[in-house]
Write a structure and sequence with these properties.
By secondary structure, this protein is an alpha+beta fold. It is built from four helices and twelve strands, in the order αββααββββββαββββ.
Amino acid sequence: MSNDRKIVGIFGTWDYSFWAKPEDIFQARLEKNPIFPFEETEENHYEYEFISIWFWFSLATIAAALVIGGIVMLAVRNPMSYLVCCIICVLVSAYTAYVYQGKRKVVIDHDNDSYTFYRKGRRIYTGHVHNIYIRLVGQKGGNGEIYYKVVLNGFNLEVQALSSSTLRCEKLEKLGRRLATRLNLNFFDWTDRSTRRYSASLSVCFQDVYFGGNRVNCVNIGQI
């Protein structure tokens, strides 16, 4: 397999050099919207609304399982064992689609040094802005090479890929740092090092679970 077209893992994203390089697509999106994927609704206030990719993946899996099940019924003399697999696939995918249905929204409020994550209009978590970040993720493929992509992540957030995977990390890292600077967020490279435009205390949060709800505690562990 050539370096122009490769896949990462089971559910990885393709690196289509003959079509458009992932880093070039990411750059074009940032040129169109310098704070992609966020929108600035007011000064120092950014919002990003999305539907989880797992919802669409589940719907596609259900459709594929139904098509395969129909073909099996027509082409196989004893299709029962195959149909059981298709039914299980449909049930699991339907449950996954149910779990990931509805819009998610991430709100960054620098005036209050906080971010909030909403799921289907319900507030899930509000935390300190230090605990949301842009990161360059590196993942080793089956051929031993490392593929990179930029993601949005944080405490009690659902990870969101902002770019597709590529072998070429230099440009992607620069674009990720630029985005983090514009949003005034932490940036981590794929070796887990954090950089930020200014010095700030880093808080790590953990949850205590008790009867009647959750309590979130934050501990200051030093300077970035």
